[in-house]
Design a protein that fits this description.
Elements lengths: L19 E6 L6 E7 L2 H16 L5 E5 L5 H13 L2 E6 L5 H4 L7 E5 L2 H7 L6 E4 L5 H11 L5 E5 L6 H12 L1 E6 L5 E9 L5 E3 L2
Parallel strand pairs: 3-4, 3-6, 4-5, 6-7, 8-10
Antiparallel strand pairs: 1-2, 7-9, 8-9
């Protein structure tokens, strides 16, 4: 087993993110020929998100997450909020998912049930940073991006490497016509520059 690197965060990563044991077999259901300890691939997205959000946020403000899900990336954004003296609003169409995140008592977090595009359009004010991780169909991603135009400088979109999500997200990015970079991870992140029209094809940053 490899030695586990322990990182301390105000809000810890989801259980299992920092360590996972894989058993490699020489064929499906065959005998185990190798057992090693690796970092959970999803952990790279978690760390990448914190890095780009911290770099993007220039002053305290509101961090928006669309698509709460089990709250894995909500935890990452709460760590950013602690460092940047900001707060997080996470919006999800399904209120039943809230009980999974176990973070309702965090003073920097507000959870909202509703459609993300409707919430963005109804909200007054700008955003310090935004993570899009809700409905990944092209039209919805495009509607979110258009609703955020002029209200935030950097937007991250999760699941860029996951099919069929990746196809729809990339189509939305192409039509939105703004420059963006890809951060490679298990699920992948697109970092969209909301201030700059496309001058190059989406690039790559190895995560």
């Amino acid at each position: 087993m490899t030695e586990q690197m322990t990182l301390k965060f105000p809000v810890p990563p989801p259980r299992g993110y920092s360590r996972r044991v894989y058993q490699r077999r020489d064929w499906d259901d065959g005998p185990v020929i190798d057992t090693r300890e690796y970092t959970n691939p999803g952990y790279q997205d978690w760390l990448n998100l914190m890095g780009i959000a911290c770099e993007a946020i220039e002053e305290p403000g509101l961090i928006l997450e669309t698509g709460t899900g089990p709250g894995h990336l909500t935890r990452a954004l709460l760590n950013v909020a602690a460092v940047k003296k900001s707060r997080v609003v996470t919006v999800d169409i399904d209120s039943l998912k809230w009980h999974e995140i176990n973070l309702q008592d965090n003073p920097n977090l507000e959870v909202v049930t509703g459609d993300s595009v409707e919430w963005i359009n109804a909200h007054e004010g700008d955003f310090a940073f935004v993570l899009l991780d809700s409905d990944h169909r092209k039209d919805h991603v495009l509607a979110e991006l258009r609703a955020l135009k002029g209200r935030v400088k950097r937007v991250a979109i999760h699941d860029l490497n996951m099919t069929p999500h990746a196809v729809h997200i990339r189509e939305a990015l192409k039509e939105f016509n703004h420059d963006w970079l890809e951060l490679r991870g298990e699920y992948g992140l697109a970092l969209v520059d909301m201030t700059t029209e496309v001058v190059t094809e989406g690039g790559y940053i190895d995560g």
